[in-house]
Amino acid sequence: MKCPLETRDDREILVAYSCRTLNPGDTGRLETHLESCTACAEFVRGQLAVWEALDGWEAAPVSADFDRRLTARIAGQASWWDRLRGRLGMLLVYRALPATAVAALVVVGVLLERPSPPSIPKPTTSPVEALQPDQVVRALDEMEVLDQFNHRMKSDSSSPEM
Amino acid sequence: MGGATAALDYDAELMLRVRDGDGASFAQLLEKHRSPVIHFLYRMVQQQAVAEELAQEVFLRVYRSRATYEPTAKFTTWLFRIATHLALNALRDGRNERSQERLDERVEDMPAVELEDRRPSVEQSMVRQAALDEVRRAVADLPGKQRAAVLMHKYREMEYTQIAKVLNCSESAVKSLLFRAYETLRARLAHMA
Question: What pTM, to 2 d.p., does this model score?
Fold first, then answer.
């Protein structure tokens, strides 16, 4: 048998041996190996010590009211909405379904028959732009040029044709 | 895990009955798994009150999930996955941050040491208590996943495949986790032999 500590793939065989979960065939071969390999023997000794130490660690007993507390929490999980829905559902199914259906039809009918109010158009708004002084001057210049152009056109049209 | 395996898992069958509204089946599951889950959580967080609080949450989640439960894995795998998840979160949140102090305080919630007919002397009891404290400290110092792997391997005797499913990792990762964890524990506890 190859040394499990050297072939790292098989090293869990040493843990399994210490936990006494190794199969009989591998146990026999490992025990033969342990007689000649001090490293593996040391590993097993240490692992057995760990196993024994962990054996001595007992868990505390469970509180007597654990189940009662859990039951209370489970009962609390059913929210008021669930309870209300459940009761309402039963009421609808067994008692008030016809009346509820009629009421729903009446409500739908009233809504359909009621004239809808005239729609009021929303006032339109346009964004206000802040003008810069040079923009104003340029606009006035353009208006003056346009005015001159109009004046020129008028004078041209009033002059007799050649 | 396939349906055939699930069919052999009696706990999964019980859970399916819980899904169908059978409260008695939930009580059966609780009766069977209450102690293993609490003991696992106790060794994870090392405080009995926190462990029981987390266990309440585990069973509450099991109950809440009943409507959507599908036996895609062994029931205990699912159960311990929930428990491990909650324990690791609690460790991360520092909910058991006083655990180390409490180890020093020799807390009340520690299990009573079983006395044999031949009563140990005061010195023997003290030595045993000191050894137990050392074990608890060594386990508490392991990283969360290594700790969970060791506790499932040692105390629940779970196989690597199941631990891998609980921890949501590969089997080789579990082997590696366990090897490193035991290496650490050997370094700290081997002298106790």
Answer: 0.69
Residue type, B2: G
B126: contact with A, CB 8 A cutoff: no
Chain B residue at shortest CA distance from A76: B60
Task: Please give the Cα distance from A11 to A40 (Å, whole number).
Answer: 9
Domain annotation for chain B: domains and CATH numbers: 3-106+126-192 (1.10.1740.10)
Burial class of residue B37 in the structure, from the number of CB atoms within 10 Å of its CB (0-12 exposed, 13-18 middle, 19+ buried): buried
Query: CB–CB of A59 and B63 under 8 A?
Result: no
Residue-wise pLDDT tens for chain A (162 aa)? 788 888 866 788 999 999 888 999 999 999 999 999 999 999 999 999 999 999 999 988 999 999 999 999 988 876 555 666 666 666 655 566 677 777 888 888 887 777 666 555 555 555 555 666 677 667 667 676 666 656 666 666 555 443
Enumerate the residues of chain B whose CB falls inside 8 A of the CB of residue A19.
Answer: 153-154
Contact A66 B55 (CB under 8 A): yes
- CA distances (Å), A125 to each of A122, A128, A132, in order? 9, 9, 22
Q: A73 — contact with chain B (CB < 8 Å)?
A: yes
Which residue does chain A place closest to B61, by CA atoms? Answer: A74
